[in-house]
């Protein structure tokens, strides 16, 4: 994948306490960015919900960094995407789920994949990043 240029119209980095109380900040930041980039009501809602779900997953299943926080960056990329990256300092290990069990939980990544146009889970030696992109109108 090539490098995409970042627009100065929307670029916000946040350090979030790894607690559920941070989810309000996430929703507000995602909504502000989506509105600034001209997403319609439905896409704005999807973007905000995906951001909230990704951060909630990082809080519950990831590991905070040394400062007790997880990271979130929301930024516009050219050509034509609004991107959220959520990072924590944990090692992602895919859960072992028997499809026959149909769990009530554990569907976060699947939900995010429906809401966003592109989703990447990037585990690394220094943590995990979930990168999600929503296509902007031409």
How much helix is in the residues?
25-40%
In CATH terms, what is the architecture? 2-Layer Sandwich
Main beta-sheet annotation: 5 strands, antiparallel
Which strand-content bin applies to the residues? 25-35%
Cα end-to-end separation: 21 Å
CATH structural fold name: Heat Shock Protein 90
Mean pLDDT: 87
Count of runs of 4 or more consecutive helical residues: 3
Name the overall outline. Answer: globular
Unreliable runs = 1-7
Our Rg estimate from Cα atoms comes to 15 Å
Number of strands: 5
Features:
138 residues; alpha+beta; Heat Shock Protein 90; five-stranded antiparallel sheet; disordered N terminus
Structure description:
The protein is α+β, with helices and mostly antiparallel strands. The chain has one domain: Heat Shock Protein 90 (2-Layer Sandwich), CATH 3.30.565.10. Helix content is 31%, strand content 34%. The chain has 3 helices and 5 strands, in the order E-H-H-E-E-H-E-E. A 5-stranded antiparallel sheet has the order 1-2-3-5-4, with helices on one face. The longest helix has 21 residues.
What is the topology?
Blueprint lengths: L4 E13 L5 H14 L4 H21 L7 E10 L2 E8 L19 H8 L2 E7 L2 E9 L3
Antiparallel strand pairs: 1-2, 2-3, 3-5, 4-5
Helix pairs in contact: 1-2, 2-3
Give a brief rundown of this model.
The protein is α+β, with helices and mostly antiparallel strands. Helix content is 31%, strand content 34%. Strands 1-2-3-5-4 form a five-stranded antiparallel β-sheet, with helices on one face.
